[in-house]
Amino acid sequence: MKTNLMYLAAALLLAACAPKVGNTTKVVGQFSDDAPKVVEVTMGLMSDRDIMDTTFLVHNGRFEFELPKDLTAPAVFRTGYSELTFLSDGSTITVDPEAGTAVSNNKKGPQARFVAYNEWMDQFTSDYRAKMAEFAEDEDAAEAYYEETMATFNKYQKEAAKANADNIVGLYAITQLQMMPDNYDEIVALLDGLSDEIKAIPVVGMMREEFVNKAEATSRTGEGSPFVDFVVIQDPENPETSAVKLSDYIGKGKYVLVDFWASWCGPCLEEMPNLVNVYNTYHGDNFDMLSVAVMDEPEDSAEAAKEYGIVWNQIVNAQEIPAKAYGIDAIPHIILFGPDGTILKRDLRGDKVEEAVKEALGL
Fold it and tell me: 132-157 b/e with 16+ CB inside 10 Å = b?
């Protein structure tokens, strides 16, 4: 019994020493010199409520004011020549305008985690840029480093999303994830794990609906699945004569490589010489190709197609239709279909395009 009482006493002592979290955030700070007469504070980022925009007086270089606690709307502190952002998390935050810091007395609270997250992101960005500069002349090394580094990046973002489910950092971390088909379900789960306060932000509901739809689309169009047909009106002024279906080209007894692309997409254009080579090498009775221009003006698609040597079949003005049908989140997205329309390979790039075609043709 004595031991239990000692543990209870220790717990009560720790609770008494822990910083209290209230419904308002106390902000204090001091200018060393050249203090302005007022400081400005705004709140409302990603919020559907009215944006707070007010000023507070500075007395003898010192300022002290209170803000409503709000974990959905970061506060922006401005002095006229500098600004910093922090979370109004119900703690006491000491702002150093010259150093650009906002330190909470709650060392494990949302503001402390907000600072830690931003520091990690800054360091990651700095390290990544420096390392990629070293690989400027070595594409293979750069690609390998990119894959390794993005795996680390995504892991951190997922951990940050879970650790900050109660504040805006959690949502921001989710938006930083690579939005690839193999993690759509996980993104939905992370969104569902956010607090009710964060989920009430309108953009969260829209994001969830988008990724639920993408998860369903990629699930029904995975490798080994039959193709999903769609219809595109290539010329809205002549809908009857310009309507075309994917099934006009797929499932006709040939292997067909389909490239979803756009004229404004740099990586798409970089992939073109590779596709031209594949077409020239393998086009024939058993193999054909199709380009589907998405989110692009038909005139721009036609001009780029001529410039980059796209002489195979084309569909233009597809806009968002293929993306919704196949859960495509980034282009170029290249899919190899079998003679009966079965999806054989998805998301092919570079050397993997020709490798997939050769394997399918038994070469």
Answer: eeeeeeeeeebeebeeeeeeebbebb
Q: Which two tokens stand for residue 226?
A: 């039959």
Instruction: List, for residues 317-361, the tens digit of each pLDDT value.
Output: 999 999 999 988 889 999 999 999 999 999 999 999 999 999 999
pLDDT in tens, 75-110: 999 997 789 999 999 999 999 998 999 999 999 999
Say if CB 71 and CB 168 are below 8 A apart: yes
Burial tier of 322 (Cβ tally within 10 Å: 0-12, 13-18, 19+): buried
Cα dihedral across residues 47, 51, 103, 80: positive or negative: positive
CA atoms in the 13 A half-sphere facing the CB of 294: 25
Q: Domains in the chain and their CATH numbers? A: 17-104 (2.60.40.3390), 112-220 (no CATH), 231-361 (3.40.30.10)
